[in-house]
Amino acid sequence: MYFLRTDPDELVAEIRRTEPLVTEGRVEQVKQLVVRLKQKLSQREHRDVSLFKALQAHMLPLTNVAFNKSGSRIWDTASGTELHSLEGHRNVVYAIAFNNPYGDKVATGSFDKTCKLWSTDTGKCLHTFRGHMAEIGTLVATGSMDTTAKLWDVEGGEEVATLTGHTAEVITVSFNTAGDLLLTGSFDHTVSLWEVASGRRVHTLTGHRGEITNVQLNWDCSLILSGSMDKTSKLWSAADGECVATLTGHTEEVLDVCFDMTGQLVATASSDGTARVYNAATYRCLATLEGHKGEISKVSHRWAQHGCE
Asked: Which keywords, in A-to-Z order, does the entry hold (predicted)?
């Protein structure tokens, strides 16, 4: 396989010749991604893979794919038929997300420095969110490659606040259940806790040695949970921003983390192909879930009528 045989520096140089968006300042980051991808592919090159459906319509390289809860839009995955073409961005669309579980809207982030909100029923653009000074990465509040997060009024499509302080890309954002607090996680290895009403940064959580992959507050906002590419998860006190525990055991990057509804359990997902469940009070690993043949990208607790299972 050409990709596995070729030196990472040569691959990056080849990518730069065809992708003008990969500037000099991004070379080292792209190289790290290439090295990680080569490692993953070398572990999986002998596994059986079969083509299910080819969705063909784009004229440029595909950057992102997302499924809604039913797994059917904006392409009908059963037939491979295109349902809508969402046109309006002036540069590469880099991030997409459905409003699951409803699946009636989809958000797109683009290198044209805007986010757009679309109707999946009609394919029409409902709102365009503007304001970032660089490419947008993901949408929840919104986090961006310009190192900021922004808060938006969804009804009016207006920018409410810009949250500054990170020194690298903001890769994950998460509200608490009440919506008055926001967490941001960054490639600068830190997590920030923000007060939504004022836009004030309450705490900066430092201690991870790798990029932050996901963040979450528990139900009463007493604890903050973070996952990182450094193969660990951490629990932090939301009151003072101090780390109260480091959850270890994974042998590869932690890609996702979540609390259960009660805040008593923590689940983690990793590139090592396992998920783990920890007691949030004792920090003890209660279970290691093994059986997947590839990395686990997402983890979730099931919410029952009277609690979490």
From this structure: Repeat, WD repeat
